[in-house]
Amino acid sequence: MRLFSMMQRLFVACRLTLFVLILGAGACDPSSTLRDKPSALVAESHFHPDLDIDQRACHVRRNALLSQPDVGGTPAYDAMRAEILGRAWGEPMVFMREPTRLPIQQLSASTRTLAIAFDRAPHGVRVDRLLRQARNQPALLRSILLPEGYVYASDPLDALEVVRSLQLPLLFQEPVIWLQRQAEVVRLERFRERNTSLYRYAEGPYQGQPASLQFGDRLAISPAEFANPLHRDLRTLARDVGFDRVRIEHRVASALVVQLRFGTRWVRGVLTAQGASLQLACLDEPRATVEWVEAWMRENGHQIRARRAMEAVIDTEVRDALPFDRPIDAEDHFSDGALRPLWFDAYRRGQTMFSHQGRGYPVYRSDGIAWPPQVCVDLVLETYERTSGTWYRPRGQPPERIVGRLDFDAEGITNRRGVLAFGTFAESSPSLFEYEKLEERNRIPFAKRKEFFAYLLEHADDFGPGHVVAIQGKKRDGHIHQHAIFVETTDPVTGFPYGLFDQMKKPRRRTWEGIMAEAPARSLYYHVRPTDKIWRAMDPQPGQIMPSPLRRLVQSR
Hints:
single chain; 4 domains; four-stranded antiparallel sheet; 19 helices
């Protein structure tokens, strides 16, 4: 028995030694070996039989990465990260370093003059000014406004203007260009529509639709230019694995050394990069802690799956583009909500059109999907319900609302359409929602943007995916308005709730700036969190056990 134990330890030691040698062979210097490493790292490579091999392997790997120079990060962007995400629509990318344009001395004389003037101009106006000055010079605009091909700025006002004002036909004249968003690369094709040049998606789920720019996008004339990206898609990994916050301790080209938060517990780990994609390589923690994380993933797997399903439903809702429930000729908001009852009556009768005050409206979209008019609370409730499988049959099938795992009608809701009524329902339904009305002192008008964003950042742990926020305040018509906003996602670095989804004109993903700028006197009014009952109803695979993303050298006993 003793001999067997010694042989088992020797076998494990050999595997760890092999791992360390492979790690050394994969270092930046191909000729380096373990002997070339700092003495502290050599000491770490010694095998301790009383410690877990997976922990030791990850510990060695983490220290090897820490011994490499940090590539720099983005201190200017990080300092303004929440404000940028609150204003400019895009993805919360982690950049290895700041994207930079060519040095001034390498620019042509004409470009150099405009670049110097751009650098000296005030933030927030200089983008539009440059677009007017060089409107028919796409290469020049790219050289100044797209550092290393990125839609990027480290100032919030510039970031907003870059996303709002840059249009692809101003930047390119080529018939085909390429877009990298997160880790995906798609081809865009130029076309003309009503004497206007546009680029549209030539592939993927949005094929045929006009393409627009988001913060963090990368553009190129050839996909070969996307080699060695500066950005890393942290949000997708966070969503798929389940951690909600990350602290980045060290950045090298091949990996990030991080701390991850699962629930309320922080753990040390290593994320490896394949291009812009990230994978959870290992956790530098004792086996008991790793097993706790894996148990947490299993216990919360339904919510992780539900969140993925919810984002897919929001993709569908954006593509479906259900119309806002306001009659075409309405001059104000007082007739909002008048169309949906008429639509439903026509739908259940099997009709294809309905009318209101002499105007005709379609029951189905041209491709046959049911097309009910929506107000903002409709979108909120139907996002939950559609994720659970509740929705209307398309044209060609018997008209019916298929009920999935969640139906708020069955939960006793009496008013599905009013913002205040939804708040009352949420407050009286603790099995479904947690309701919180904000104290008056916390109702910061959006006009005070810095204070507004600072409040959200300070209270980031209170907001999460699937939450609902109501805003209230006076608009330009002099009336007090309420509006319900669905929080789709948060920034894994800061926790800032940046990814918003709402219905106004049509379902759209927007920022706080995009929603609230038109009436900046509005402020947060109430906040609603879905309970586990709703998350379980949205789980597309109830009862499934979530597999661990961690690869083990030694399995649990």
